[in-house]
């Protein structure tokens, strides 16, 4: 039996790395640490999947060859997913997309992409999660629900966490929550601002104004009474080290990147008075890595197109949902992601119509409708590599058990080789 | 096997100054003629292999360029890339053959960085500032930069444990900890940025000089610099302390930098991007040149080396661990601003700007850089950098070389800049023109020697076969932006100014002395203060392969 | 047939996350993503008891869900992320690639036939 300490759980963007895993006969037999989701991730035995071409069992090599043929004969291939695999596999996917002249997009475009667009317009004052744990005395959760989406965020980093300047944890902090629902996160807050749906921009604008001491006409803003906003503004101004943690309540609601822009401006304003940081609550375990890798390889964080031989960037044009909804993509490679289950109906329907290659440890909804399915070793369990935490801190993913299938990186490299051969023959 | 025939060789480290010499290459190294021709018993002997000959008659042959301070990889430059989609769009680089594409030009993508450095004849670059906790990210990007041997200077000037050990006067443990940091994160040397200022930045403060208080500590910036120089010298690391001084960008910076150099008191110290630190006070203007006093000091103190950090006109992206300074830049530009604090150890800021020759400030910064180049007498201790991309992109080096080598061109450009700035400058009185030998020193031999890279920056037997061959041309910008050949590790990678194949270099690591293991005292504190586990902070040694271990002094 | 006009929010829940980790074919995942949360008042207006099947319609589509009460404003209904929710979400042209996942106008109906 082997015990591994300091194991990283790469399910969500918190990348908790304090997990101990026991392995016996090439299977994980127990684990300590981690949340309910993490426990299920590590303790669910891997599915016994096999490579499939049009539903028929085949060899890895046959499946790779079929994938290369599909992708190399497409006029407008799309490479999508990437957020639940290693940076090494993400880099391999970018290389493959470049060889194909494809569009490449990560799940970023349907989660925090608008926040990234806002960061491009404005930049971001930010920090690592240790600064939150060690210093933050005012924590504002806007449109995110870590109690359910990042279950250990409160205890490891942001609320109960006891740190250097916050020895009493929760008692050292003022917690503010803003949401359209009274979520489990909102229920723990000292101040809860319940906004009307699609009113975040208005509420943020009013809050900025009050924070900067401007006078405002009106009694409620986006459903929030002025008195509550004033109370929140005072708390923000009074912070020694404040942090805004935001989620898809901002990026998915009406206004999208403009909502995030206004949140970033609020933090920028507050930096004239005190220290204030913003951290996007990234969902997938390595979606931050996907943006980092694409940025260093192409200059752009997501929604990149290589059809002219060099990278071009256009969210809304080269983003996956748009390419599919407009019926432009005529083949797809999906890596470690399940767009058939997560995309809006119109985009998911297009995916079902076009030849698709899926590389995924799980036989996902998308895999079930793919022409080619190639099972891979699960990143962080059966394949090693690197993942980036929501705050950009890179962590090592280790191989704990052996898989009969290669890593995503290896499979993508094999497909790329196959594509090159198709192009030259 | 490669034989470069009949070039005019500029190899100042070996006293060769434009003489016609043949250069022989075998096994990725430069060797003497006998060995290469198989007469002796050396590497190529008896193989019967015929050497590929490069006719370099009439051409200028130098070692491959060495940049000891450039922001090329890691979280900070990736933020810069994120902030500049418009810049990328203006400079697309298509893939060609087996070579990857990307974008430029101020904060290029990784493959383009390697390609463009090589296309100027550079073959070795040191990333200027890596944060230990995010060092994995730096290495991942360095792995994706082709054509270059690379290393990373490691940020330590605001590190909690460094400061606490100096507080406690525990130099032994400080040395242990420095070795731990370098070894476990793949750092090449010690970098300090605005020591102490980053700590006070946590409450949005700063330090205003060498003797200001630092929150939570009994020491001042003076003590940090003093201790880091001592540790660096005790460990005999290949490169001296690499220092970004306090008060950078302020009209007090020249004074603070003078005091900092005095504090070194004969001990080796590298002051980086001196231009950004060479400002004095001036009534009715934001600042004036402090170049003369700084150059005078450097000229008479051989323990000091500098790189200039020349400003070039046009867009740039400032990025530094000096977060308080970057916030002051935001107040000037009111444009994009990213700030990041990394728990317990460092912080950074990124702000895009543009240097205009029409403004007093932009022109003065440009003039100060040139004044420094022309006033600093010993090229072995003054190196060409733009602190890329802070003062402008590294691709401007050939232009800077032309400004240094061609006085009439320099004066022509000077006469187009802000009048008030030019009138206040001594530039037009400086008649010096750099020679090819001096250019070879400030772009290769000097930085290589100061980094302790014994196999770089020269063309003697045993050196790495990193070679640049230029067509002589009176327009030195044209000459240095289009080498006829660049050879990396014995392979021709650039021909007629164009990269023809990708190769991947090695990671440069110091041969660290054995020290006591820090885990016993550090791990418990680390667990209290950091949010990642101690073991995940350390990067496996294999991660740095292929690497070259550089001996200590 | 009773109906309620509301705004649809989709989002994550712990059970949905655990279901994801167990696999999308797990019972937990299917059950959780097949639920809609309504305010007590909205449930009363529809005459629906917990577990009853309701249909939710948006401009993009219609799907059936088992309803359950939650601490929500009357004007908001919540559905965990999953394939059923995505029958109701849509592509919005002219945005940054972000579909309509939150804040979509919807109608909730209790179909007396009880058919799913």
Could you describe the 3D structure shown?
The complex is a heterotrimer of chains A (425), B (553) and C (116). Chain A is α/β, with parallel strands linked by helices and 425 residues long. Chain A folds into two domains: 203 residues, Rossmann fold; 168 residues, Dimethylsulfoxide Reductase, domain 2. In chain A, the strands form five sheets. A nine-stranded mixed beta sheet of chain A has the order 5-4-20-19-18-6-7-16-17. In chain A, strands 11-10-9-14-15 form a five-stranded parallel beta sheet, with helices on both faces. In chain A, strands 1-2-3 form a three-stranded antiparallel beta sheet, with helices on one face. The N and C termini of chain A lie far apart (49 Å). The longest helix of chain B has 16 residues. By secondary structure, chain B is of the alpha/beta class. Chain B has a single domain, classed as TIM Barrel, CATH 3.20.20. In chain B, 34% of the residues lie in helices and 23% in strands. In chain B, the strands form six sheets. In chain B, strands 1, 2, 3, 4, 5, 21, 22, 23 and 24 form a nine-stranded mixed beta sheet that branches. An eight-stranded parallel beta sheet of chain B has the order 6-9-10-11-12-13-16-20. In chain B, strands 17-19-18 form a three-stranded antiparallel beta sheet, sandwiched between helices. Helices cover 23% and strands 34% of the residues of chain C. Chain C has a six-stranded mixed beta sheet with strand order 2-4-3-6-1-5. In chain C, strand 3 and strand 4 form a beta hairpin. The longest helix of chain C has 9 residues. The radius of gyration of chain C is 14 Å and the shape is globular. The interface between A and B is large, with 60 and 60 residues. Strand 8 of chain A pairs parallel with strand 18 of chain B, so a sheet runs across the interface.
